[in-house]
Amino acid sequence: MPRQKGKKDYSEDLRNLAVKHYQDGKSLATISSQILFMPKTTVYYIVQKFKKMKTVKNIGLPRGRKRKTTREIDNAIINKVHDDRKKASKSIQKEIEEEYGVSVSSRLVRRRLNEHGFRSKVAKKKPLVTNIHRLKRLGYCYSYSANSIKFWYRVLWCDEAKFELIDSNRRQLVWARRGESLPANYFTPTAQQGGGHVMVWGCMGKKGVGGLVFIEENMNGPSYKSMLEKNLYRSATKLGISKTFVLMHDNDPKHRSKVVVDWLHSKKIELLPWPSHSPDLNPLEHIWLFIKRELQKAPAKNLKELKDKIIEIWNSIEEKTTAPLVNSVQNRLNECIKQKGYPTKY
């Protein structure tokens, strides 16, 4: 209760004493006339305030500049972000000024968005999905969404990946004062072609990872077929699906070359038809991401060390990592359908 002008302000100790006597069962009149000798109405207001506020301290009225935007303008700011999540705060600022005739800053726009739980974040990079790709993704998802989990346990997920010696794409945040020039040891090093890289082919199933092959030269159809001959059945046997496995690889030209297609047909290997631009539907992509994150913890100094680290991380991957990824395939398909064929959160 703020102190009113012209009214006597009793000490906090005295007010606490009034509350204590009231809690001990004494009446307001007794406290007023026989104990504290203060007006009965004052005792009443002290007790009521304690019941309502759980304190007898003076609580001042809120201070500060009057809020510049009305609820209508706040809602307009939020609606603009709902309509376009990529819209910059400066664009929203200009639109609000033009539509409502109110001068606001881009910083104020950001504060209003923060009040409603919005935070600026870096947008995830996803492959470009055209309408044709979208329809093919939907066709695949609808065709296989009814398959049981046992079918996905038979799939041998295969893919290639690139690992750079220097990860120039990684964002490194540093603390600096405005206008401060940081020492060179705080810079993020970059190099052409990442300072060197390695290409690998690998595969996984529900029970773990299969073979890992380093690709030393540009691979074409015949060399890809040769690699499959050496590693495909060996990996399937390791994962316990040699007689029933379904091969998944993407639509890279060498995968669709005549020599590879003919070899797969001759071996009667069942092939999972794959929609283009769909890494989010392939659980093996998460294994590559896991390896890259582990490499960032202790970056390799040269290509040989990079290869050794990749092999070490690959061999450490167990069923407890791969099984949840394969079990997520059904959810990936459903999410793709929900997103109408557009990229999913995976």
Give an overview in words.
The structure is a single chain. The chain has 346 residues and is an alpha/beta fold. It has 14 helices and five strands. The chain folds into three domains: 12-53; 71-115; 131-168 and 193-338, 2-Layer Sandwich (Nucleotidyltransferase, domain 5). It has helices at residues 12-23, 28-35, 40-53, 71-83, 89-100, 106-115, 131-144, 149-153, 221-238, 258-266, 284-297, 303-316, 319-327, 329-338, and strands at 155-164, 197-205, 208-215, 246-248, 270-271. The longest helix has 18 residues, at 221-238. It is elongated and about 105 Å long. The two termini are 54 Å apart.
The name of the CATH superfamily of the largest domain reads Ribonuclease H-like superfamily/Ribonuclease H
- Describe the sheet with the most strands: 5 strands, mixed
Terminal residue distance: 54 Å
CATH third-tier fold name of the largest domain: Nucleotidyltransferase, domain 5
Could you tell me the strand content as a percent range? 5-15%
* Poorly predicted segments: 1-6
Q: How would you describe the shape?
A: elongated
Fraction in helix = 40-55%
Number of domains: 3
Q: Give the helices and strands as they follow along the chain.
A: HHHHHHHHEEEHEHEHHHH
Q: Tell me the number of helical segments per DSSP (H or I, 4 or more residues long).
A: 14
CATH class of the largest domain: Alpha Beta
Coarse structural class: alpha/beta
CA-based gyration radius: 34 Å
Described by its quaternary structure, the protein is: single chain
